[in-house]
Amino acid sequence: MRSQKNKIFRALLLAILFAFLLINSRTIYNPIRTAFSDISAAPLRALNDFKSALRRMLPFASLREENRILRERIELLNRRIEEAKFIAEENNRLKDLLAFRKEVPYSTVAAQVIGRDPTNWSNSIIIDKGARHGVQKGKAVLSTRGLVGRVLEIGRYSAKVLLVTDPNSKVGVLIQRTREGGILVGRSDGTCKMVYITPDSDVKNGDRVITAGLGTTFPKGILVGEVMETGKEPGRLYKYAIVKTSQNMSKLEEVLCIR
Known about the structure:
The protein is an alpha+beta fold. The protein has a domain at 170-250: Rod shape-determining protein MreC, domain 2 (Thrombin, subunit H, Beta Barrel), CATH 2.40.10. The chain is built from two helices and twelve strands; from the N terminus they run ααββββββββββββ. The protein has helices at 2-23, 31-103; strands at residues 108-116, 124-127, 140-143, 146-154, 159-163, 170-175, 181-186, 192-197, 208-211, 223-232, 239-245, 254-258. A six-stranded antiparallel beta barrel has the order 1-2-5-4-3-12. The chain has a six-stranded antiparallel barrel with strand order 6-7-8-11-10-9. The protein is elongated. 24% of the residues are buried.
């Protein structure tokens, strides 16, 4: 019995060896080998395509990561450029302010605009200097472009400035060319109105308006703005002029407070 099993085992081993030789034969046409090749062709092709696609994708994945890093660096550089521009612009404004401060014949305190009164947003500002720094209530406030307003309220380290464009603001002014006087009143649209101009005045568009120096608040000769429109109100004897301020009040960042 055992001898018979050995014979069967040897026969199977010989059959397997014979099949292996047939499959790997290079000289004899072998349908089995051909069928096996056909069956394995599709999976092998898919595997090869996958490997090719993977090789193509790996560089792109690396490039995407590199692009992400480069974009972040570009954004950082752009922020630094904007910061540098801001600092340069601020330095230029401060240089202009210091140069202007040397030119004006008054003792002044330089201050930065740090806010606006929420109850009067367009016509008053908050500055970072107060009584502790020599700022005085009722005194004029200037910019490098001209008159800004006057100190309305004062604290130790800050103050509130009423702008000339506020309807509650009134300033004695002159037409620089003709030396004719009037009162400058603020308007809600951000301009001013010069009233009480004599009927025979030849005030014209483009005429410069300066402070008249009446009282102790506003020194004489400070530029306020220029005439952009003239007219005569019905039933009134006096002319009026709409004045555009030389300083754009919405862009105020630094001021000088006269002491």
